[in-house]
Amino acid sequence: MFERLRAHERAQLALGLLMGIVFGFLLQKGGVTRYDVIIGQLLLADFTVLQLMLSAVVTGMIGIYLMKRFGLVALHTRRGSVGSTIIGGLIFGAGFGILGYCPGTVAGAVGQGSLDALVGGVPGILIGTGAFAALYPLLDRHILNRGKFPGDTIPEILGVNPWVVILPAAAGIVALLWLLHWMGF
Amino acid sequence: MNPLAAVTWSPYVVGIGIGILSWLTFLLSNRPLGCSTAFFRTFGMIECRIRGDAVRERPYYRLFPPTIDWQWMLVAGVIIGAFLSAALSGTFFPEWVPDRFGDAFGYRPGLRILVAFIGGLLMGLGARWAGGCTSGHGISGSLQLSLASWIAAICFFAGGIVTAAAIYGGL
Questions:
Q1: A-to-B residue pairs, Cβ atoms closer than 8 angstroms
Q2: Range of the domain at B26
Q3: CA A105/CA A127 separation, integer angstroms
Q4: Count of domains forming chain B
Q5: Is A51 close to B12, i.e. CB distance below 8 A?
Q6: Which domain holds residue A12?
Q7: Tens of pLDDT along B123-166?
């Protein structure tokens, strides 16, 4: 149905920009482009980041799987591994705690005037990705493929209908958000 | 009051908005929201300028060619969107040192920039190592129920919580 639009390169660049403007607007309004808010989350003093992310995940999950059910969208997942996902994730986490922004919110921080993001964070991330590219042949041979996960998605690995995972996951996330709210966050 | 001029919106409202935005990225662009690959493409474009086009032949550059694509435009849009949001609420202002950092370590721009740069290095390295960031794994992958993304997101926060606690003296 949307094949022509999806294959139209110029239209996609324009759509990317438009969707990015909406994304950046929402991130800034959500407060998560602020260092203080992200560090507050990592110090477990402020749960804005988790509240925002989990609301996005529940909303997105239900909509994407409904649209997939009707053949409107395809999933885009990749197989992870211990060597890639866990080691990379922990390195990212260390950077997250030191920088206090992530690749999306650092761009938003630049837009709101945070000069530490522009002058420190962005060049750091750029060079960090370049360092990975330089190490990639070595890492690909020895580390990234260690301990491959058994499948792409949780329902696929469990061999169940996706809704068997979606409904309890959505209920669990909503319950966690209620609990945080009840605890005064 | 005009909601566009509000300084912050409820994180639930914003989260639901980003969830709906992700429906549109899948439906109209056949792509998930993500940000970190755009940083590598930018690095590659700068490197091509300096060292010539031979770098395009290296393995990782073949996987992610240094060109402007949908995601690159998305990240450019994030800068504009955040500027619009901040400007409409009167909260756009140049700031070298965020308050929480300044209160703990002093309002010294040089120190904050050095720390941000080191954090950025690790983040860029880790994002490509793990194959995604807080948007690509944390939101887009998690909502697709990707096992790798749930594990990555847990590692992002576990690493971040320990590091932040170490920096702010909670450990």
A1: 532
A2: 1-93
A3: 18
A4: 1
A5: yes
A6: 2-182
A7: 999 999 999 999 999 999 999 999 999 999 999 999 999 999 99
pLDDT tens sequence across B94-126: 999 999 999 999 999 999 999 999 999 999 999
User: According to DSSP H, which parts of B69-145 are helical?
Assistant: 70-88, 99-105, 109-130, 142-143
Question: Structural domain tally of chain A?
Answer: 1
Taking the CA of residue B91 and the nearest CA in chain A, the distance in Å comes to 7
Instruction: Enter the pTM of the model.
Output: 0.97
Dist CA A102 CA A118 (whole Å): 13
Distance between CA atoms of A29 and B11, rounded to whole angstroms? 8
Q: What value does the mean pLDDT of chain A take?
A: 97
Residue numbers of A between 1 and 40 with CB closer than 8 Å to B: 2, 5-6, 12-36, 39-40
Residue A59 and residue A65 in contact, taking contact as beta carbons nearer than 8 Å: no
Judged by a CB distance cut-off of 8 A, whether residue A184 touches chain B is: no
3-state SS assignment for residue A102: coil
* Chain A residues 140-169 with CB within 8 Å of chain B: 140, 144, 149, 151-155, 157, 162, 165-166, 169
Q: Which residue has the tokens 């992700």?
A: B22
Q: In the predicted model, is pLDDT for residue B171 greater than 90?
A: no
